[in-house]
Design a protein that fits this description.
By secondary structure, this protein is of the alpha/beta class. It contains twelve helices and 25 strands.
Length: 501
C-alpha cells in the first residue's frame, strides 16, 4: 500500500514554515521565546500553573471535510508530570465546528520527562464541512521544565487518502463453517476472566467474548521493555486458554484481542511500532506465537490483530497501521490457514476512516469497527467534569438519533458492499450516566441487526462506568444494581443468540 509522508497543502506550508518571531505567533506567558525556526518554552518550578505556550490563528476553511494530520518535531528535558493527562507538553489545536458552537481541543499532549533528542509529535482531525478557523498552540501547561519546537518541521496535511486505496475490486470469500455461523452477539471481557464470569454470560445467552489483553490503555512511554512485556502477555494468554477451555461448557466463542501492542504509544495519537522497527517486528513474532498456541481450539473464533490502531505520524516503509496488519495476517496464515483474522482501521477504528481503508488481498478476513460516536456523548464527564448531553437530541451541534447513527456508519456500509466482507462491531457503549444511554445502545444494536453485523458490547465487569451491572452518576459513585436499563437492552438481544456447543 502506498503511503505518503504528507500531501502538503501549499497555503499552510507557506503560512507555517519558518515563521519569524514577530510574524503571527502570540506568546501566552512570560517563559516563551522565539528565535528563527526555534520556539522554546522553559518554565521554572513553581510557575507551572500559569499558561506558557505560543499560539497562532489558522484558516481551516481549505480543510473542510478532510482528515488532516498535524505534526512537529520537538525535544524536552526535565518536564514534570502534569496533574491531568491532557496537559504537560502541549501541541494542540482549538477549533469549533460552527461559529459559537462546541469547542474541540485535539492534540499531541501528555508527554513529560526527557525526550532524548528530537522526536515527532502529532495528531489527526476530521474537520466538518462547516469549520472556519482554529488556534494552534505549543508549549507547556501545568508542568515545569523545558520544551523546544522546530517550526521548520511543522507539517499540516493528509497522511491517508481514499485516492491511495488498493485492491479496490477485491471480494472476500469465507469458508462455509464461517459463512454459515449463527449470528454472534456478546461482550468485551474483564481484564481477568473467571469461571463465574462465563457462567453469568451463559445465563444471559451470550455466545461471543472479545478477550482483551490490556494494560496502560492510551498511556505514552509504556511497553518498552519487550522481555517484561512478553512475561505480562504470557500470563494473559494463560488466563485466556483457561477461559476458552471453560467456554466449551457454555458454547461461548472467543476473539483474541491484542489490546496492548509492543512499544505502546510514542504520542497519544500514534503507536510506536509504526516508527520503530524492533517493536513492529516483535508484533509479528507475537502473532506467530499466539496462532501456534491457539490454532485448532474449538472455542477460537478469530484473531484481532491490533486494538484501535492510531497513526498520525509518518511510518517506516511497510510498518504503517495497514501493512503491519497485513504482514501479521500473512504470518498467521503460514501457521493457521483456517481461523478468521480481524483487521481494524485507523484513528481507533472509527467508522469514517473506512473511506480510505484498503482490504487485504486475502480471504477469511473480517473487518472490525468501533462505534462511540458522538464521543462527547458516549464518554461525557468521564474525567469528572463537563456538561451532560442527552440522546436523542442535539449533540456536537447536530441532531443525533438512529438515522444519524446509521449515517455515521455509511463508510463501513460502503466498504462492506464493495468487498462483500463480514463486518464485526468489536466495541460500542455509552457511559452509565449518559441520559438516554439505553436508547443509544438500542439504536446502535438495531442498526447492527439491520445490517447483519456481529457485535460485542464494551464491556463486561471491566470498568464500572461501562458495566451494565452497576449504576451511578460519576466515577466515584458507582454501585452494583440488580438490573439497569442498559442491561435490559443487551439481554433483550442476547435472547436471539443460538448457542452451539
Amino acid at each position: 500500500m502506498r503511503k505518503l509522508f504528507f500531501t502538503f497543502l501549499l497555503l499552510f506550508c507557506a503560512l507555517l514554515h519558518a515563521v519569524p518571531a514577530d510574524d503571527g505567533w502570540l506568546r501566552k506567558g512570560e517563559f516563551c521565546r522565539l528565535k528563527g525556526d526555534l520556539a522554546a518554552v522553559e518554565v521554572p518550578s513553581g510557575a507551572e500553573m500559569e499558561q506558557n505556550w505560543l499560539e497562532r490563528e489558522l484558516d481551516l476553511a481549505p480543510f473542510r471535510g478532510k482528515e488532516v494530520s498535524f505534526a512537529v518535531k520537538c525535544r524536552w528535558t526535565g518536564v514534570s508530570k502534569p496533574p491531568e493527562p491532557w496537559n504537560g507538553i502541549k501541541f494542540m489545536l482549538r477549533y469549533q465546528a460552527v461559529p459559537n458552537g462546541t469547542t474541540y481541543w485535539p492534540g499531541g499532549n501528555g508527554m513529560y520527562g526527557d525526550s532524548d533528542g528530537w522526536r515527532w509529535t502529532g495528531f489527526t482531525v476530521k474537520f466538518p464541512e462547516t469549520v472556519t478557523a482554529g488556534t494552534l498552540s505549543m508549549g507547556l501547561q501545568h508542568s515545569y521544565g523545558k520544551v523546544e519546537f522546530d517550526l521548520a518541521s511543522l507539517r499540516i496535511g493528509t497522511l491517508f487518502s481514499p485516492d491511495d486505496r488498493i485492491n479496490r475490486e477485491w471480494k472476500v470469500k469465507y469458508p462455509e463453517k464461517i459463512a454459515s455461523l449463527p449470528r454472534l452477539r456478546g461482550v468485551m471481557s474483564p481484564h481477568k476472566i473467571t469461571y463465574e464470569d462465563l457462567k453469568t454470560l451463559h445465563e444471559w445467552n451470550v455466545n461471543l467474548v472479545r478477550a482483551q489483553m490490556s494494560r496502560n490503555w492510551g498511556a505514552v512511554g509504556t511497553e518498552l521493555d519487550l522481555e517484561e512485556w512478553d512475561g505480562w502477555l504470557a500470563g494473559k494468554l494463560d488466563n485466556l486458554e483457561q477461559a476458552m477451555d471453560w467456554g466449551r461448557e457454555f458454547g461461548i466463542r472467543f476473539v483474541i484481542d491484542l489490546h496492548c501492542p509492543p512499544g505502546g504509544r510514542n504520542t497519544p495519537d500514534n503507536m510506536r511500532m509504526f516508527n520503530e522497527k524492533k517493536y513492529g517486528d516483535h508484533f509479528i513474532e507475537v502473532w506467530k506465537r499466539i496462532s501456534t498456541r491457539f490454532k485448532g481450539h474449538s472455542q477460537l473464533y478469530a484473531y484481532n490483530l491490533i486494538n484501535e490502531p492510531v497513526q498520525s505520524l509518518p511510518a517506516l516503509p511497510d510498518y504503517d497501521y495497514w501493512n503491519l496488519q497485513r504482514r501479521a495476517a500473512e504470518a498467521i496464515r503460514e501457521i493457521d490457514p483456517d481461523t478468521p483474522i480481524m483487521v481494524e482501521s485507523n484513528r481507533s477504528d472509527r467508522p469514517e476512516t473506512f473511506a480510505y481503508l484498503s482490504p487485504l488481498r486475502m480471504h477469511n478476513i473480517i473487518y472490525k469497527v468501533h462505534m462511540y460516536m458522538p464521543l462527547s456523548y458516549t464518554h461525557q464527564r468521564l474525567s469528572g467534569s463537563g456538561t451532560a448531553a442527552a440522546y436523542p437530541g442535539i449533540i456536537e451541534d447536530a441532531q443525533w438519533n438512529r438515522a444519524r447513527i446509521r449515517r455515521e456508519l455509511e463508510p463501513v456500509i460502503d466498504f462492506q458492499k464493495r468487498h462483500d466482507c463480514k463486518i464485526y462491531v468489536g466495541e460500542f457503549s455509552a457511559i452509565a450516566w449518559a441520559p438516554g444511554a439505553e436508547k443509544y445502545l438500542e439504536d446502535c444494536i438495531e442498526t447492527f441487526e439491520e445490517l447483519g453485523w456481529d457485535w460485542t458490547y464494551h464491556s463486561f465487569r471491566e470498568s464500572p462506568v461501562w458495566n451494565v451491572e452497576m449504576e451511578g452518576d460519576r466515577i466515584g459513585n458507582m454501585r452494583p444494581a440488580k438490573t439497569t436499563p442498559r442491561q435490559k437492552v443487551l439481554r433483550k438481544y442476547f435472547k436471539r443468540n443460538i448457542i452451539v456447543k
